[in-house]
Amino acid sequence: MFDDLRDLYQEVILDHGKHPRNFRHPPDANREAKGDNPMCGDRLVVYLKVSDQGIVEDAAFLGKGCAISTASASMMTEVIRGRSKEEVMALFRHFHELCTKDEEDRGEPEAIDPDALEKLMVLSGVRQFPVRVKCATLAWHTMAAAVDGDTVVSTE
Ligand code: ZN
Q1: Where are the domains of the chain?
Q2: What would the pLDDT profile of 6-42 be if each residue is shown by its tens digit?
Q3: How many angstroms is it from 62 CA to the middle of ligand 1?
Q4: What's the CA-to-centroid distance between 51 and ligand 1, angstroms?
Q5: What distance in angstroms lies between residue 54's CA and the mean position of ligand 1's atoms?
Q6: Bigger pLDDT: 114 vs 70
Q7: Cβ burial, residue 67 (10 Å; 0-12/13-18/19+)
């Protein structure tokens, strides 16, 4: 990766880490799940409002964690809002591959909005730091549990 691109990514992560978006508990949320990453001490709650048609109408979170976990949760809430559950789960699968696999080992991306993919690329640098992968994916695992109706997630 070019250094200037890496710097840009770092800036975006720091910005989201310091000023997380959708850091709130929506009163009309109808799904929620707790996530816990004991390796790092990241703990968060993801709140979703899922419509009868299966559209994620609102996504938010609260919690305490490192800059990576907070930034990832913040970006996730922005990226998944307004999408169907199926789209959201496809994004999760793709994001997980971004964080854990080199480019040549990734599967063909499913039909995913390129804007969403570009946003998620920002965090793909964590795959060079395996211990950070759990920080980056915690919010997504937790969100997936909320969509499925589970309530507690631990990365252990
Ligand atoms: Zn962490």
Answers
A1: 2-154
A2: 777 888 999 999 999 999 999 999 999 999 999 999 9
A3: 14
A4: 31
A5: 30
A6: 70
A7: middle
Amino acid identity of residue 150, one-letter, is D
CATH class in words for 2-154: alpha beta
Where on the phi/psi map is residue 41: left (φ > 0), alpha (ψ -120 to 50), or beta?
left
Q: What is the dihedral of CA 79, 36, 109, 7, to 10 degrees?
A: 70
Contacts of 153 (CB under 8 A, 6+ apart): 33, 34, 35, 36, 138, 141, 142, 145
Q: What is the residue-averaged pLDDT of the chain?
A: 89
Q: Tell me how far the alpha carbon of residue 137 lies from the centroid of ligand 1, in angstroms.
A: 10
How many angstroms is it from 135 CA to the middle of ligand 1? 4
Distance from Cα 17 to the centre of ligand 1, integer Å: 11
pLDDT at residue number 15: 94
Question: Residue range 50-77: average pLDDT?
Answer: 96
